[in-house]
Amino acid sequence: ESFAGCRLMTYQQMLNILSTMTNCTDFGWTFSGCSGINSNGEIKKEIFANMGKAKSLSYTFSGTNITGQLEAGIFDNLTQVVTIIAPFGTGQRVTGHIPANLLKYNTELVTFADVFNGSSGLEVATNIDTMFLTNTKLENIYGLFAGCNNAVMTTNENWSILRKSVILQNKQTKAILRFLKRLFDENIYKK
Predict the structure, then answer these.
(1) Any idea what the Cα angle at residue 40 is, between residues 3 and 146, rounded to 5°?
(2) Predicted TM-score of the model (pTM)
């Protein structure tokens, strides 16, 4: 909560601060409520460029105006991250399509939750079945696509493929099964 509520902070000021936080591991609520931070409709990977030692991102940018399409490779630098919970908040934060290989380098990831919660009209890539391919430690994915009204799948098979992928990649994890029902809510539009 280091800078929580700093309404006059700009996007560039945030990047400058983040460039000095290279040894930080916990980014919980760090810039929450900093409504002056605006991403202009794109969520760029530069915001995570200096967070290579981060272990936890929880509501880090909640209440900012960082919204839009996720840039390809956005989480690539977060190789030590264990927890990602709603880093941009919930509800209409992420738009457009989910980039391919979103979590490819996040091999320590245990919790990836509420990231797309409430994102209406989200387009899910055809290769969503590889989303969790390298995340063999993953246990918690609650609310990942909850409330995603009118989410567009590129094929009718994507949800069942993703379900199977999550289970196959995480055979050792019984906890994953508890979250599948909430993960895949009924408000999905299939082309």
Answers:
(1) 75
(2) 0.82
